[in-house]
UniProtKB/TrEMBL annotation:
Pfam families (alphabetical): Glyco_transf_15
PANTHER family to which the protein is assigned, alphabetical: ALPHA-1,2 MANNOSYLTRANSFERASE KTR1, MANNOSYLTRANSFERASE KTR5-RELATED
InterPro entries referenced in this protein's UniProt entry, alphabetically: Glyco_trans_15, Nucleotide-diphossugar_trans
Name listed for the protein in its UniProt record: Uncharacterized protein
C-alpha cells in the first residue's frame, strides 16, 4: 500500500476528543423531580387507525416508565381521519393533553412536480427486486414526510422539542428524569438510542447525492462526518473508479451505511426548521429518490446530522431501554442504585446490576445485534 493511500486513509481517522463530549444524562434510579420546569416539548406518534393496539402498547409503556411523572402532551398524526375507537383508547391512557391530527394533504403524497406514473413504475421495480417496503406507496410518502415535512405540521409548530414514538415499541427501563430538559441544558440537538446498518438496496444513490451537495456547498468534513466513511484503499488516480460501485462519493470513498435509527428520536425541531436543513431536504426531494428509490428518514436525518452538527450536539441515550423488534437498546442496571424500596417505583429486586451500569430498573437481555454494536462503537469514538 502506497504512502499516498495510507495518508488518505489516515485523513478519515476518527480522532478521539481530548475531553468527553457526551456523557449519560442519568445513572441509576432517582426520585423524579415532578415540580421542575418543563421544556416546550411534545411526544409525537405517526400511526394508522389499524395500529390502535400497537399504539396503546407504546403509550402504556411510555407512561409507566416516564410520562406518569412529567405529563408531556402527545400528538397523534394520521393521513386519514381518526376513528373514535383510537381516540377513546389513547385518551384514556395518556396522562398529558392528547391531540389527534390529520396530516395536511399537501404534506402527504407525491411532490407536485413528480410524474405519478413514473414514480409508481419505480416502486413496482423495487417490489420486483425485493426491496423491503419498496412497493408500498404509503411507505414512501411516510419516509418523505418524516424526512422534511413533519416539523411544519400546524399542530407541531408551537413546539421546539419532540420525542418520536412508534406503535409496537416498549420502554424497558424507568426514565426518572426529563430528557428534554437534559437536552436543552447540555445544548444537544439530536438524540438517539440505536444505530444500525442501512439496507444497501434501499439507497443505491443517496450517499452520492448527499456528498455532491456537500461538495457544491463547500461544507467541510468533521470528525463526526468521518464516523460515516470507509475510505477507499485504492491509490490515485484509480480511486475515483470506485465511485461507480454505489454508496460512494465522487472520490470513491464509501458510506459505511451506519445511521441513527429514527424510530426513536428526541430532537430539536428548530434545527430541522433551519434554512440549511430545508435547502438540503429540497435538493433531495427534487431528485426523486424518495420514490424512484426507497430513501428512509433515518439515513436522511443521520447524514444531515453528520454534515451539519457538531459531535457535542448529538446525544446517545444509552440509559434508555428501548425495544422495537428485532432491535433493542438494553442498558445494564447500576449497582446499588435501583431504589429497591421506593414508593415511586414500587418495591422489587432487580438483577444484572453492575458497577459500570447506568440503567434504572431495566428488564431485558443486554445482547445488542451485531450491526448495532458495529455502528454504536464506531459513532461513540467521536464522543469519548
Amino acid at each position: 500500500m502506497s504512502a499516498e493511500t495510507l495518508f488518505h486513509i489516515y485523513s478519515y481517522e476518527v480522532k478521539r476528543p481530548s475531553r468527553p463530549l457526551d456523557e449519560p444524562f442519568n445513572r441509576g434510579c432517582r426520585e423524579p423531580d415532578v415540580l421542575a420546569p418543563r421544556e416546550n416539548a411534545v411526544i409525537v406518534m405517526l400511526a394508522r387507525n389499524r395500529e390502535r393496539q400497537g399504539a396503546v402498547q407504546s403509550i402504556k409503556s411510555l407512561e409507566k416508565q416516564f410520562n406518569r411523572w412529567f405529563h408531556y402532551p402527545i400528538i397523534f398524526l394520521n393521513d386519514d381521519p381518526w376513528e373514535e375507537a383510537f381516540i377513546n383508547d389513547l385518551t384514556k391512557i395518556a396522562s398529558g393533553n392528547v391531540t389527534f391530527e390529520q396530516i395536511p394533504k399537501g404534506m402527504w403524497g407525491f411532490p407536485e412536480w413528480m410524474d405519478h406514473d413514473l414514480a409508481r413504475q419505480g416502486m413496482k421495480r423495487q417490489e420486483d427486486e425485493g426491496v423491503l417496503y419498496g412497493g408500498l406507496e404509503s411507505y414512501h410518502h411516510m419516509c418523505r414526510f418524516n424526512s422534511g415535512l413533519f416539523f411544519d405540521v400546524p399542530a407541531l409548530k408551537p413546539y421546539k422539542w419532540y420525542w418520536r414514538v412508534e406503535p409496537d415499541v416498549e420502554f424497558i427501563c424507568a426514565i426518572p428524569y426529563d430528557p428534554f430538559v437534559a437536552m436543552a441544558k447540555h445544548k444537544k440537538k439530536y438524540g438517539f438510542t440505536v444505530a444500525l446498518l442501512e439496507l444497501r438496496q434501499t439507497v443505491p444513490t443517496l450517499f452520492r447525492k448527499v456528498t455532491d451537495y456537500k461538495a457544491k456547498h463547500k461544507i467541510p468534513s468533521t470528525n463526526l462526518w468521518n464516523t460515516m466513511i470507509n475510505p477507499s484503499w485504492l491509490p490515485q488516480p484509480f480511486r475515483p473508479l470506485m465511485s461507480r460501485l454505489g454508496n460512494r462519493d465522487a472520490s470513491g470513498d464509501a458510506w459505511n451505511l451506519c445511521h441513527f435509527w429514527s424510530n426513536f428520536e428526541i430532537a430539536d425541531m428548530d434545527w430541522f426548521r433551519t434554512q440549511e436543513y430545508r435547502d438540503f431536504f429540497e435538493y433531495l426531494d427534487l431528485d426523486g429518490g424518495f420514490y424512484f428509490e426507497r430513501w428512509g428518514d433515518a439515513p436522511i436525518h443521520s447524514l444531515a446530522a453528520a454534515m451539519f452538527l457538531k459531535a457535542e450536539e448529538l446525544h446517545h441515550f444509552e440509559d434508555i431501554g428501548y425495544v422495537h423488534h428485532p432491535f433493542q437498546s438494553c442498558p445494564k442496571n447500576k449497582l446499588g442504585a435501583q431504589m429497591a424500596f421506593s414508593k415511586t417505583f414500587g418495591a422489587g429486586y432487580w438483577d444484572k446490576e453492575v458497577s459500570s451500569g447506568i440503567g434504572c430498573r431495566c428488564a431485558c437481555n443486554p445482547r445488542p445485534t451485531l450491526p448495532d454494536l458495529v455502528c454504536i462503537d464506531r459513532i461513540k469514538q467521536v464522543f469519548r
